[in-house]
Write the structure tokens for this entry.
Amino acid sequence: MSSDADATGPTQATEPQARVLLAGSLHPLVLLLRLLDGIRQSVFPLVLGIASEPMFLAVAAVVFLLHVGQGLLRYLTFHYTLTTDELRTREGLLHRQERRIPIDRIQDIGFESTLLRRALGLAVVRVETASGQGVEAQLDSLSQADAERLREALLAARSLRVGAVESADPEVAAPRAPMPDPEWTVYRAESSMLLLRGLTDLRFGAMAVAAYGAYELADQLGMFTRLQGVGNTFEQWLRGFPTVVAASLLAGLVAAVLAFSSATAALGNLLAFHGFRLTLRADALSCRFGLITTRQKTLPRARIQRVRVEQTWLRRLLSVAVARADSAGAGRGVDDEAPGGYDVIVPLAPLQSIGAMLPAALPGFESERGSVRRASPRLVLRLAARGAIEAIVLAAVLWPAVGASAAFAFLWLPVAWLLGRLAWHGLEFGLFERHIYLRTGLLGHYRVYVPTHKVQAVSVHQGPLQRALGLAEIAVFVAGGPPTRIPDLELADARAMLSDLASRAALAAMQDWRNPAV
Amino acid sequence: MDSHDEVPQPTADDERPAPVAVASEQRLERRVVAYWYATHLVRALAMAAMFVVVSRSLRAEIELPAWSEYVAWGLAIAVVVSALVVPAWAYATWRFSVDDRLLSMRFGMLFVEDRRVPVPRMQHVDISRGPIERLFGLATFVVFTAGNEGSAFRLPGLSQARAEALRDGVLRARGRDVV
């Protein structure tokens, strides 16, 4: 450890203020993991080799040796160093790679340990930056104590830097690293809520994929010819019953399939988010969760670009919601869930308690005053007009093929109008002193909160229909993910918001420049 | 309802969001119209030719109703006409202004866009010049902000000198605040 600190001597000379806080390498038990990995990788050729061609034995040996050798090499050469300025990782013997991540740029520190790693007392440390590629550096694996120490040192270094820059208050500027800040629990998930999360999981897409996979498998195994016979007898068996009984039998079957998928989703959620706890310490939020694979992530509050509170229609009926926080470089679509649930800050809770928790993620939100506004009612008109255009185009396209029946395309018109009504009812927004609030959704409710000082750019957009109706859409660009769009504002409102937000963003940006650590 | 395609042109000017008070508005270089005509017309003629040729060869292969030929010709003519209209129209709608706080851009014919990018939020600025752009002595000023999607904002049709002046202005405005 001390030799490592010496190795960084020359760099210290060029950066006089940088001081090594922590240095180390991977935990030796990683070798065991790599060994198991190697065995797992070579099992398939090994079995093949024993069963048929002995040549595969050589393949198995090569795969095994390569895997273990790579693991050994990585273990021997991997070192990390944390200075007051940056986190440095170094690895490789011939192809040497050194990575430096400035502490200011670190968005997020997460831990992940699978069951096996936990049994060995190991954790994978994931360091995220705003580059948009997600994980920038992955330390696989450190002992849990080392991982914890690294996180503490990183957070302390961060708050030291923030303190040093915000030195208006002399007491704050004093080094406060040795004295850990108190940690308070913002939210602790109850198992009943996690169960509900699973039961209200409407992932029909995932079910469809699973069904397709099953279909493929059945097709490969040539089960369909056999199934056809089964199907025929089933059909005849069904026909034996009166219609009502047959219908209810079918409905029962569908219900059973749905119940099964709900049950698996509930179980999956219970395992993934078991013991979810959201805590706040100093200026960082952290989440700890998981039963089999435990995960922990730390998200400095100043890095939060956007908080989303989402209710699908089913969860809205039960007035419960999910909350997520986007940090810069998340690079995910609005509706996507981050793998492993890393962006979730509340897996499921009553909407009211989420409202009460919001200030923990959005500092200053508790003192926000201002009214929530509705979009222009001409939104309905616009969507109906768009529906009419679509119906006309559809009718014109269908006319040559089906003749007068193409008029059925106009049935789309009332549907479009209804959708417009729903969209208008779902839409509300507010521009508060320090946050933008937006709620959208037809049946569900999707709320978005954006701190105005995180705004990167603003734009007002008008399509031809919107111009005819005097409407405009405003897009607010932040560093995490796609822009937040508020559709169908009155043009005058949109212009006012555009100027207001743009000048606030410019002001906030100038303050960020004077105060770069925040 | 059918009329909204005609609405934009006559009322275009009062429909546009109000100009920024701080900086004076600027327009693109006039010769960008020539550049756009050159590129758009070449592309449009190629597309029109493709439509006609494809419909001909399709008719030779499979049986299509007689009016499919007219559709192809209609499409071809529409593409060429739009290439004739778009450059001048686009030039007429483009406005931008810049001061040491904000870069504002307004443009669009049917779909109107009004963008504000705070100068201190710019992560880096580029000047890009394609080969045909260079022939016309033009440059595109590209601004990047943090984030992944839609984080590049392009300002086309500037002379090299103007683009450089813009870049220097932005860097100066930022430099002052860094200190």
Observations:
- The radius of gyration of chain A is 29 Å.
- Chain A touches chain B through 46 residues (CB under 8 Å).
- Chain A has four domains: 2-111+120-186, 204-272, 303-375+427-514, 378-423.
